[in-house]
Amino acid sequence: MKLVNTLLIISLSASISNKKIESDRSLIVPGKGGNGYVLYSSYSDIKNRLKNSLSNPRLIQQKRITYLIKNVLSFSCSNITTTTFDIPFKKALYISSKTALFFNNDRLTAIAIFNNKKVTHDMIDLTKGISAIIFRYGNKDLLTCKYKSHTIYVYLKKGIAFVDDNSDNSVDVILIFKKQK
Asked: Which helix (H) or strand (E) holds 68?
């Protein structure tokens, strides 16, 4: 039964089009996109899309490569390092207080979403908290890291991570990135 569920979820993820992700801002597809943005989109395409929106994105450009987990979120753990996993970027677009887009080589490499009123493609209601995610995705291939009162839960093979500020079972930040092997 678990194999059937896994195959169904894999086929659901593969069948969700980029257009669907771009048009449904409540949808999260690990390893592919969410909040209306698709991984590997070009910086110029996203800037053109944002021209017609009401948001006023703020661009932050780095002189050298910066790492999202280590440098921006300030997590420093032995099991999550820049050699095992991190998201390098040189540009970041902050769109209101809801989304941050991270680019490397002018391609979208990560999406950070600061709103938990989302649903994953496999029907996890993120307002139910971290425990609902772990119940659905399990502990296999889960990396966790605590920093002060914050915890990050990383599913490398799925291409998604969740940050829980204050370790109170809430999803405070959703990170979508390329699936890792």
From this structure: none
Tokens for 99, please give them: 């989304």
Q: How many CB atoms lie within 10 A of CB 171?
A: 25
pLDDT at 130: 93
Q: Which residues pair with 70 in a beta bridge?
A: none
pTM higher than 0.70: yes
What lies within 8 Å, CB to CB, of 83 at 6+ separation is none
Residue 5 has pLDDT above 60, yes or no: no
CA distance 181 to 176: 15
- DSSP state letters, 72-140: IS---BTTB-TTTS--EEEEEEEETTTEEEEEETTEEEEEEE-----EETT--BGGG-HHHHHHHH-ST
C-beta separation of 8 from 15 below 8 A: no
Say if residues 153 and 133 touch (Cβ distance below 8 Å).
yes
Is the pLDDT score of 23 beyond 80? yes
